[in-house]
Amino acid sequence: MRRSTAFTDIDFDRKGRQVGFFHIPQSPDDDAWGTVRIPLAVIANGTGPTVILEGGNHGDEYEGPITLGEIIRDLDPGTIQGRLILIPAINLPAVVAGKRTSPVDGLNFNRTFPGDPAGTITRQISAYVQDVLLPRGDAFLDLHSGGSSLDILPSAIVEPAPDPAHQRRNINAVLAFGAPITVVVDNLGEPRTATAAAVAAGLTVVGTEMAGAGTVSLDALDICRRGVRSVLAHLGVLDPSFAALRRPDPKVYEVAGASSYVLAGDDGVFEPYHRNGAEVRAGQPAGRIHFLHDPGRAPAELRYGADGIVYARRQPGRVRPGNCCLVVASPYRGSLG
Amino acid sequence: MRRSTAFTDIDFDRKGRQVGFFHIPQSPDDDAWGTVRIPLAVIANGTGPTVILEGGNHGDEYEGPITLGEIIRDLDPGTIQGRLILIPAINLPAVVAGKRTSPVDGLNFNRTFPGDPAGTITRQISAYVQDVLLPRGDAFLDLHSGGSSLDILPSAIVEPAPDPAHQRRNINAVLAFGAPITVVVDNLGEPRTATAAAVAAGLTVVGTEMAGAGTVSLDALDICRRGVRSVLAHLGVLDPSFAALRRPDPKVYEVAGASSYVLAGDDGVFEPYHRNGAEVRAGQPAGRIHFLHDPGRAPAELRYGADGIVYARRQPGRVRPGNCCLVVASPYRGSLG
Amino acid sequence: MRRSTAFTDIDFDRKGRQVGFFHIPQSPDDDAWGTVRIPLAVIANGTGPTVILEGGNHGDEYEGPITLGEIIRDLDPGTIQGRLILIPAINLPAVVAGKRTSPVDGLNFNRTFPGDPAGTITRQISAYVQDVLLPRGDAFLDLHSGGSSLDILPSAIVEPAPDPAHQRRNINAVLAFGAPITVVVDNLGEPRTATAAAVAAGLTVVGTEMAGAGTVSLDALDICRRGVRSVLAHLGVLDPSFAALRRPDPKVYEVAGASSYVLAGDDGVFEPYHRNGAEVRAGQPAGRIHFLHDPGRAPAELRYGADGIVYARRQPGRVRPGNCCLVVASPYRGSLG
Amino acid sequence: MRRSTAFTDIDFDRKGRQVGFFHIPQSPDDDAWGTVRIPLAVIANGTGPTVILEGGNHGDEYEGPITLGEIIRDLDPGTIQGRLILIPAINLPAVVAGKRTSPVDGLNFNRTFPGDPAGTITRQISAYVQDVLLPRGDAFLDLHSGGSSLDILPSAIVEPAPDPAHQRRNINAVLAFGAPITVVVDNLGEPRTATAAAVAAGLTVVGTEMAGAGTVSLDALDICRRGVRSVLAHLGVLDPSFAALRRPDPKVYEVAGASSYVLAGDDGVFEPYHRNGAEVRAGQPAGRIHFLHDPGRAPAELRYGADGIVYARRQPGRVRPGNCCLVVASPYRGSLG
Amino acid sequence: MRRSTAFTDIDFDRKGRQVGFFHIPQSPDDDAWGTVRIPLAVIANGTGPTVILEGGNHGDEYEGPITLGEIIRDLDPGTIQGRLILIPAINLPAVVAGKRTSPVDGLNFNRTFPGDPAGTITRQISAYVQDVLLPRGDAFLDLHSGGSSLDILPSAIVEPAPDPAHQRRNINAVLAFGAPITVVVDNLGEPRTATAAAVAAGLTVVGTEMAGAGTVSLDALDICRRGVRSVLAHLGVLDPSFAALRRPDPKVYEVAGASSYVLAGDDGVFEPYHRNGAEVRAGQPAGRIHFLHDPGRAPAELRYGADGIVYARRQPGRVRPGNCCLVVASPYRGSLG
Amino acid sequence: MRRSTAFTDIDFDRKGRQVGFFHIPQSPDDDAWGTVRIPLAVIANGTGPTVILEGGNHGDEYEGPITLGEIIRDLDPGTIQGRLILIPAINLPAVVAGKRTSPVDGLNFNRTFPGDPAGTITRQISAYVQDVLLPRGDAFLDLHSGGSSLDILPSAIVEPAPDPAHQRRNINAVLAFGAPITVVVDNLGEPRTATAAAVAAGLTVVGTEMAGAGTVSLDALDICRRGVRSVLAHLGVLDPSFAALRRPDPKVYEVAGASSYVLAGDDGVFEPYHRNGAEVRAGQPAGRIHFLHDPGRAPAELRYGADGIVYARRQPGRVRPGNCCLVVASPYRGSLG
After folding, report:
1. Of the candidates F60, F73, F273, which has its C-beta nearest C295's C-beta?
2. For residue E34, which residues of chain A lie inside 8 Å, CB to CB?
């Protein structure tokens, strides 16, 4: 393990419920010998797998952290078999700011794996996950929502695994979530995410995208609460009665590459033509960008680049070139079993 | 009229369509002799009233500006009787930033009336509306949405007028909008808004709140497009065929005072218990604030202070003390005629 | 009274203890319909004068607010005669930031009287004090410390009153505080402070400067706790037993004009030659400014401009031209009776 | 005179050379009892008029301040008749920042007259000029250059006076400067400038524009050094031998209104077609705006709106809508005598 | 090749003209799934070398990007032999900001080679150039101007190559540019620039410095337009008739080390004594720094450290210690053939 | 040695006094070809060890830099045997800002060793120390104070060395400083500090903590002046008469691990219960956090985690979770000889 100055008041090997913190020492202008203090809880009982449950990977995604806080406060340790390691606000500075990225170093935690214990704070946090937590885990749940910039269909996410057996294990766990739809998302092959790191470390991995738009969605919160318990039941930590009714004919999609994203080509305000969930085809008009500062100029139209359903849309009306306006999820072409 | 250095390329007295700008000279670090250039269009024909249509009062509210841009580009001048003065992006620096307030001086345009031609830029813009535009108008439409921080039930808004006849005139015009609900909003008596200034200047005034959440709502955009045309028909500018079906039994509410607002008392993440439109009563639990950075601490519950429907909710989950979490609209106790 | 949208949940005329807030509605980018929520408490019983106790005039001065918080939570209403109106964090945004000035509008609250209910937030707060609170008060205590930039000898402060009887009343109340020294400070005639406004409104006024340096001083906190109670006993609100032993031969000084201030003339790091309390004479070397970035250059020496004691010194070593490095308090030349 | 806390170590009535400062007390986060310290020098001898020489109205215009610094250090008081009041860095915070506007309050000093001694710092400085300095002066020289955003033909400037005799007096003094060209600039009637305030106070007023582009121009510095001395000779303060050869047939222009300014209509990079001094006509292509981020889009062309010479051009290539790209000076249509 | 998530819509192997973009996915607060979209064009025909033409290495240098935009829009593919890969705004975020460095991560693109596909955005862009573009190129033109902080004699630049044959190849190509002067610049041995990376990759490399001062120079633009075509003719891509008249006795200089730079030692405003192009000697006074905030203090003089011509000067008058005020180019002591 | 573009005007091998700079070339927006210029002085004579004396590791710690500046200006080279390399403002940008960390790249210099000559400026500075200075040194003094956020008992610091003989050498040199107390501080094992790098390079290492609170302490300055000379005498560079009276029974403590730090768990204002130097025990109440914005809420108490003396306290009253409020130094359990 790489040398680190991080420390914690949690004993990972003790039974029962512990609610505490791990600390990343930092030395900024206003606190020479202080720390970034990150919530960490462990609930353990009997025998069973260790499941790491992460929220707050991005600081403006709330359904996961709320769900994990409820488990931390309310779950009776005696009702489980195994160990839960809960980090509901892993990028704490971002969570406190209510921002996707950390105000400390400007980094997106989900682009920092495997981290660096001698790097800036966000990299030290991901190094802690990489070096201290992942080696203790059998499974990893990373609970995302769309965040301030995206409104996404509530869904459970499969992080692709190169090994087919691992991929099946992931898909099975994800389907246990019971989300309205399941989506395979590879982020264009991005290797620096938490779920990619967990897959690389061999864990069973489940992701989510719970609505978003920077708010707390009542519907998505309900899906998340039941889905997390259902996955824990699937993994054998909770009683099988917590398993949601596994959908008999699950809808599985994939975000299949660059053509899935409708990107802005102009600076203006985006008006979409369809709602999330609508079926669309490549080449079809998707929306248009208005030039409010110059109303005599005709809006510029955008088109879809793939067939499928509208899976996500940009929340802020204001767009600049390169902004992601819409995302299409296409029917999954891989195998489910 | 107060002395001003503003100028325009628009001739307010010419017939037909003119699309141009008015300019507020400014002299910041990077542009010693330049201007803030604000879109201004006039469409005039025949005889009839002058209607001022304003969008972009706040820079992150989009349905109104999009609707006005469409009118500017597409309305055939020959089809109207009277004059439209269109200012679809009145607080231009805020519109360009996609923010509620102006990045130039930090001001909320809607708290600057009657403005000051020797003040900062936002005050100069409101002075222009006050001194140059309002004296030319018979009616004033100020097209708001909820903006980035609020998600509001799409509605048409009555700005109260002290004179009962003026109040009736306003209510009649607002009901012509045909919105799902109509709400009397006095902003706790705030006199510095554009609509308050327009009422004080004697104009017939119509306001809107079109969803919000910082995005473009397909539903609200549709309501706005039809509502604006319907009001113009009511005022005699457009053919009566443009009038939306006036709802036979309109739902009219009011935001009746400080008790209508559910304000945060803690620093955390707000989870509401009800959707917009739900019926609620004073004293009933309204939601709770989670302490994600300290998950062992129990959430703090908030309660409603008035009977009515949930009219608006805060969009960002992140709240701080004083933030408006929810707004209750109560049945209107005034007279409709 | 000037028109305002502020509101409160406190009933100024009720007996007993009330702990609540007053609200200044605001409408920034992230909270369209929210408020600045400022703590306000009233403790009332029997008959007697109304005393307004203010802390948090500057947001980085702590002994006063801590003392007022203790009174709010712990004082038994049955033990007083009269009414206390407590505003321990009056410039709330500055207090939350831990800064002298407000992050909302950049203003120093103590340069904004008489305020403006149509102005920026800080001006609205001072308008509330001016219009709602001062008219209800007989006496006004404004509890300052030195703040982040100054370390000041703990002292009670006399705000000069033009009327000699009013001046004697102020001096008597200030001497009742029992501070180690008493200082008459006129801030070069500044009329925009809270204490100047209270004097102008006819109230008996007591000020303090409790150490400073941006920290909580144990000594100064002890002086403040006892001094406030002693003044309340002097005013007849608390039992006379709370009166501190009035010093038989009080030390009274004045900061008598521009020559009392030793101002930096260079950009560097200031090394003082004497401690607070040292006796010094006009013309004597006071300290020197080092040029750390250019160590070959000889430091520049500063001199005192008045005879007296070193009353205050700059806390941050880093200085720029115009910064106040030292303040001399000279023996008071006015009458004490 | 309005009440103020400003003070100075200069005795305006003493003969000889005094180099000191006036102070505007301020109380920001990092300096509770300090000042803004602004250079002020007086050189007086014998009998003669009082001339106020101002530099640093904008903090990124250097030829005037350098010239005034040389006079302050080098001029032998025995060689003059009258009094010079020199303020070479009047908006000191802007000068220290090297910016047009003040970093303290964001204000352009030249839009703040008549100032306010209870306002923000820049307004307090202009109030000092208005209340303390202008009443002592017979003539006022305000030495500008183009600043960071403009490159201007070196020229002497006439601030229009409504009284014809006053206007002749101004023109005569300006022609004495001996600049390559003389331009009447009314800033679209702007009344808040220093020169407008000085005209309103009855002083003889001379302005300059000395190149600019944020740099020190060797040519413009030479023109400025000789021009200032020549004006002082014209006013009788310096020996007539310092008068520059008054040009026998002076070139006099005016910036005559909004059509003189070529304003950007797009967001991009501006390429001008002509150099400063070129003769141009209304309607002629003036330059074009390139869209570097979208090189497939054709540039947008701009045209002149008046006949005359290219008097100024924007220095930064990067432009946004409303930015002033070019200024045309037209032959002066008024009378020179 | 290092793993990357970048993608493009350009087919590098297709003939004819393609104008598109390459995308660097990014995930900031306001755009979770968007990209930085960077213009990329390919013009290919027949057989011949591949030439990479880069502009916008720094975002405030315009002659190169304008020239490349004209080629992208106007060059007839049928007139060339070979392939042009054009990246006119390579550091797109800096170009949009009009700044030398990227607002995204604060980095100077020209200090980031060889880049890192897992690094911040600017490092990902340089990794794309390093991994995707340079391997496809035979020659590399990097078109700089002086930028906002420097005004430089228009010149063509030789990046030194350790291999003498490579060095000769570079010099020959640079002399083909036909610039008024040619300068060998090694940036004190800096290996992280685009041209150093291209030399290390074996390409023939040509650099430029086209005036600067943050503006578009008509003269320099003319030199750049003709020079680029002339180099393309030299490389065999364009018809030889496009070759500028190669200067028979080219003036070749070098910036030979630390003594070539005249660096500020004080905080003030710099007045140079000579124009660009003037001949100067080591030890000769070069200019002086004025202390405008303290006009009684004598200016500080600076001296040249090398013999040669004044090659560049600082544009902003405001200087701080370490700022480069002037650069001397000395006659080149190396071999030209 | 790693490749670097840094340069200096100092000849490390020359005898006598040299006062100059070393330069790190940088290329930011406002200075394309300039440098960060860092003071460097060498005083050499006769034979003896080379001692590196560093100040300004953090830019808001002043006693060390003032002491080194005095040595640079005043020490007679003829009185020493050996060589002093003095870097009194090593993190120059932080020193100029008066901040702990560098405004250039946001880094704490003392977390950047061994640095990187291709990294950001702070990393380039530490690379210069690592590659150019440390190899020339026999001993290294790093003179810290508490800085703006901490008030620390004036003390000399031992950086632990893994080799016992090296550790004894360090302790002996530190005890020669003659500070009131001596403390072994390992910063939780942090390897990226200057002293850790110097120990790793084999030098004898002495650290200090001289009060702090962002100011210049008269007492600490006196301790520092005498202590530095005393260490130089101990090392044989100065005459033994400069050695302070070595305390016969030195008080030696250690900061022994995470339990030594009392960290804030809430957002509020911290009131300590004891002064620095007080004896305390683990479990004892240490202070409490007040909620000034919500005065009805009871303060939260903190407790010590170790036995010992209060060694340091937070200076700013305002605290947030994770901030270091107090530090306990426990009696040193290691060997002193």
Report:
1. F73
2. 261, 263-264, 322-324
Candidate from D265, D293, D321 with C-beta closest to A321: D293
**Separation in Å, CA A38 to CA A3, A125, B270, B292, B299:** 19, 9, 20, 10, 18
Residue tagged 């970093």 (tokens): D103
Instruction: Please tell me the predicted confidence (pLDDT) of residue D66.
Output: 98
User: A216 and A62 in contact (C-beta within 8 Å)?
Assistant: yes
The whole-angstrom distance between F148's CA and the closest CA on chain B is: 26
**In the sheet where C285-290 sits, what is the strand order?**
C300-303, C285-290, C268-272, C318-319
For chain C, residues with pLDDT lower than 70 are: 1, 337
D298 interfaces chain C, CB cutoff of 8 Å: no
3-state secondary structure of C224: helix
Q: From the CA of A96, how many Å to the nearest CA of chain F?
A: 11
Can you tell me the distance from the alpha carbon of C115 to that of C121, in angstroms, rounded to the nearest whole number?
10
Largest separation between any pair of C-alpha atoms in chain B: 70
For residue D263, what are the CA distances in angstroms to D297, D299, D320, F211?
20, 15, 9, 58
Q: To the nearest whole angstrom, how far is the Cα of D35 from the nearest Cα of chain C?
A: 5
Q: Does A315 touch chain E (CB under 8 A)?
A: no
What is the pLDDT at residue D246?
A: 78
Please state the rounded mean pLDDT for residues E12-41.
98
Closest CA to A270 of A291, A284, A285, A297: A291
How far apart are alpha carbons A195 and B64 in whole angstroms?
A: 42
- CB of F323 less than 8 A from some CB of A: yes
Region D65-74: mean pLDDT is 98
Q: Is E92 in the D-facing interface, judged by CB distances under 8 Å?
A: yes
pLDDT digits (tens, 9 = 90+) for C180-196: 999 999 999 999 999 99
User: A60, exposed or middle or buried, with CB in 10 Å at 0-12, 13-18, 19+?
Assistant: buried
- Show which of residues 256-285 on chain C sit within 8 Å of chain E, judged by CB atoms: 265, 267
Which tokens belong to F227?
């202590």
Report the DSSP pairing between strands D252-255 and D324-331.
antiparallel
pLDDT tens digit string along C118-157?
999 999 999 999 999 999 999 999 999 999 999 999 999 9
pLDDT in tens, D155-175: 999 999 999 999 999 999 999
Cα Dmax for chain D: 70
Give percent of chain C with pLDDT exceeding 90.
96
Rounded Cα distance between D35 and C258, Å, is: 10
- Contacts of A176 by beta carbon, 8 Å cutoff, 6+ apart: A206, A230, A231, A233, A234, A243, A244, A246
Distance from CA of A195 to the nearest CA of B (A): 22
**Between B and F, how many residue pairs show a Cβ–Cβ distance under 8 A?**
7
Q: Check CB contact under 8 Å for F216 and C272.
A: yes
User: pLDDT of E120-154, one tens digit each?
Assistant: 999 999 999 999 999 999 999 999 999 999 999 99
Burial A281-290 (b: 16+ CB within 10 A, else e): eeeeebbbbb
Using the Cβ of C292 and the Cβ atoms of chain E, whether some distance falls under 8 Å is answered with: no
Place of tokens 């040398």: A3
Domains annotated on chain D, with CATH: 7-250 (3.40.630.10), 262-331 (2.40.50.100)
Question: With contact defined as beta carbons under 8 Å apart, do D193 and D108 qualify?
Answer: no
- Residue B307's pLDDT is 98
Q: What is the ipTM of this complex?
A: 0.96
How far is the alpha carbon of A92 from chain F, nearest alpha carbon, in Å?
11
What's the pLDDT tens digit per position in F215-243?
999 999 999 999 999 999 999 999 999 88
Residues of chain A below pLDDT 70? 1, 337
Q: Is E23 in the A-facing interface, judged by CB distances under 8 Å?
A: yes
Which candidate from B73, B92, B98 shows the least CB-CB separation from A296?
Answer: B73
